[in-house]
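Entry:
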Amino acid sequence: MRKFERPQFRRPQKENLLTTIRRAMLAQVSGDVIELGGGDGQSAPFFPLDRVTSLTIVDGRFSPGVREHDFDQVPVNFIVQTKDKLPLDNCSFDFACLFFALSSMKDPYCALCELRRLLRSDGQVQFLDFYRPGGPAGIVFDGANLIRKVATKGSINRNIISMLEVSGFQIETVSRCGSIFVCGSAKKI
């Protein structure tokens, strides 16, 4: 009697919601791109390197993986800095990426002001961050926010949409992603 073996197929890895959103948002960037808070390397695999001219990643510290990532001949500038004023020329970038950056900063308005300086006149911002849910879940979220404030000086209860608008950006798209995230794009006005 002959034993049949089942062929071994690799199951496709399931992406979590945030990875899927990040991948879709980064598919839209091109030209000179800056990412604030990209030191964890979560975005590195998803930049469309065939359309990116240069990439600048700014963070207070970088994981080893992000520096070792192969960016395929695209010039990459790693800036280790948490200060407000970046050593970059005015109007240097076409796109800015903010993935959970504004909720982890002590003074996000200074960072948005700096982004406005760095973006070209038609520059765009791709953002993904926390958004406080309504109802009883909001109370739990408030408790988590207290812990976050102590640990990082940031806040997950910030209204990212209002912050962008007040800082001189026009919201072009915005979506709730799951129950506690918001993502979208804005352009410099």
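The helical segments are 17-26, 64-68, 108-118, 136-152, 160-166.
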